[in-house]
Amino acid sequence: xxxxxxxxxxxxxxxxxxGVDVSRFEKMRCVLGEVYAKSFFMQKNRPAAMDYFDGVMxxxxxxxxxxxxAAKKQGRPVVGTFCVYVPEEIIMAAGGICVxxxxxxxxxxxxxxxxxxxxxxxMVKSAFGFKAGRICPYYQVVDFVYGETTCDAKxxxxxxxxxxxPTYVMEIPQMKREQDRTLWLNEIHEFKxxxxxxxxxxxxxxxxxxxxxxxxxKRHAIQRLTRLRAHNPAPISGKDxxxxxxxxxxxxxxxxxxxxxxxxDELVKRVQExxxxxxxTAPRIMIAGAPMALPNWKVHNLVExxxxxxVNEESCIGTRYFKDLVDEDGPxxxxxxxxxxxxxxxxxxxxxxxxxxxxxxxxxxxKESNAQGLIxxxxxxxxxxxxxxxxxxxxxxKEGIPYLAIETDYSPxxxxxxxxxIEALLEQVRG
Length: 431
Ligand code: BJ8
Hints:
Layout: H1 12-18, H2 22-40, H3 50-58, H4 63-73, E1 78-81, H5 88-93, E2 97-100, H6 109-113, H7 122-133, H8 137-141, E3 144-148, H9 152-161, E4 167-170, H10 178-199, H11 205-229, H12 238-247, H13 253-272, E5 284-289, H14 298-305, E6 309-314, H15 319-322, H16 333-345, H17 356-368, E7 373-379, H18 383-399, E8 403-408, H19 415-430
Parallel strand pairs: 1-2, 1-3, 3-4, 5-6, 5-7, 7-8
Helix pairs in contact: 3-12, 7-9, 10-16, 11-12, 11-13, 14-19, 17-18
The protein binds Double cubane cluster.
């Protein structure tokens, strides 16, 4: 099949104004375009509505950055986050715009390693390296960022990131007892006060209720996509599913929701006609674990190039981001903040102890997605996911689920070894 051409569009003047190191970023832009074309345009029978998401990628450093620059000129701050614990609803209600800044690229890691130790998680290094090297327009356009005290690598990196960009830190509890909920409720109250100060706007109950609805609608749409992916044959590839989950952290939430619902309408028809992107016999694989930040498509590429289809991502760039909604009906600010507290407290990140609800959730999603094999995905040096993997492995064994645990980084060095192990898993599923 002839590969369609793809280019991430170039806007050197705008980048220059933002302080991006344009000559270095230009090279990264070209590589991203090539990798994207190879990963996404070789797929057969892609839904037509993926055109919108291809367009978002083509303009990921162009039109979207232009929108953010325009918003800043109107006095709306652009706020970067690294974790799904940071309540976007409050930032939006204060007039700010939220973008996810996790790093999924090997290209920024050497910049980070000039400062940070080498033996920490690649996601943290990649994120830090983008700012240290000035090689990402998103890191240049944000006015300030919110970090959090989830894992050690992140919380200590914020101290150093604060030298490069104002970095505020939310304290996330590590347990889920009543006193931890109280701590988190207080933290959310303080966060609101801080956001209001930074955005120079007081959040009204109506503002907050409106942004809770916007975010709930977005979560509903991604939940809908997830349910459609549970059909056999899969109406959309796992790679496209992951791409949509990644784009959810960058795009305008209202537009994203509308376009995703259009895609879902197309997938509904496919399901009715039993159409799909792979044969009914293709092994169906679920991936659970650490988030895969844009442009990390490494494991999905390997699984789907081997003839299988990824049907679910239990991850923060996946179901942990959208599985729970916020109660919209509270009559006043206090009840809305309490509803946000409860919803965000349900996120089952491995940084919590104990975190057995995640094991239950992984098994639930495995069944609901009609998967036939489970891959646990950990990033190198991520102690919490790597250790929690033991319990996921035990639960999979108890259920007789074909299982593979992967610990990897963003480099291509282990691709051959991963390919062999993934093929062995798929053989087991086929057998
Ligand atoms: S809520 S998963 S987004 S912290 S992989 S940086 S834990 S060493 S990403 Fe996360 Fe929030 Fe949790 Fe989700 Fe550290 Fe592990 Fe790296 Fe991680």
